Amino acid sequence: MNSLVDQAVVGRIERSLERSRVYSLLAIGLGFPDFESHAGFSDGRLILEMQRAIEVCMPDLADYYCEQIAPRLKLTCSFEDFEALFLTAFEINTPVPSAALNEGVHVQQSNRPALILELKGFYRNFGLTMDARGNELEDTLTAELEFMHFLSAKQAQAELDGLPPNAYQRAQRDFLERHLVAWLPLVRAEVNAKVSTQFFVAMTDLAEKFVEADLQEILREINS
Q1: pTM (2 decimals)?
Q2: Exposed/middle/buried for 199, CB within 10 Å: 0-12, 13-18, 19+?
Q3: 135-162 pLDDT per residue, tens
């Protein structure tokens, strides 16, 4: 019986680590481009890494990823062109209106300061703050994805240390329900309407589907 319990824990740790990697890769793909990420999506390394992680932590999503998402993630443009495509898609509103990657633009527009305070509270509870050298607010999509990357990794570490993972599971459930699952469908719809670069369309599509599936998995873990 102990060996069965141990195997269950090992499987949960592996899934948490791979969930963490998916969140990290989503944040990389939807964050401001850098040379490393551009290289990884150009040579296919990060595309394959995402596939392997999804196969472990979200196997029901693996076929969709391979057939519908992965082909659109392969970059064939230069870094400079990719950077320009990101700016057009999400920042400069030229030559067409850009899509917004901030939660407060899509929900709670009338009380965005309260949203920012809530997010700061989430992050501060786990010893995290936004990098003061950056110019990003707490409600950016990359910040929220990186927070889930952090929580998933902390859940795995707790179980490796023989500690109960409950606090991290509940935090992930609450954060997904209150934030990412609530507003990513709005981002995906806006990206579909305004953005022509298929890399970003595919990334937001994957992000929406992954957070929804991840919430269901976390609820199943909590209730099991």
Answers
A1: 0.95
A2: buried
A3: 788 999 999 999 999 999 999 999 999 8
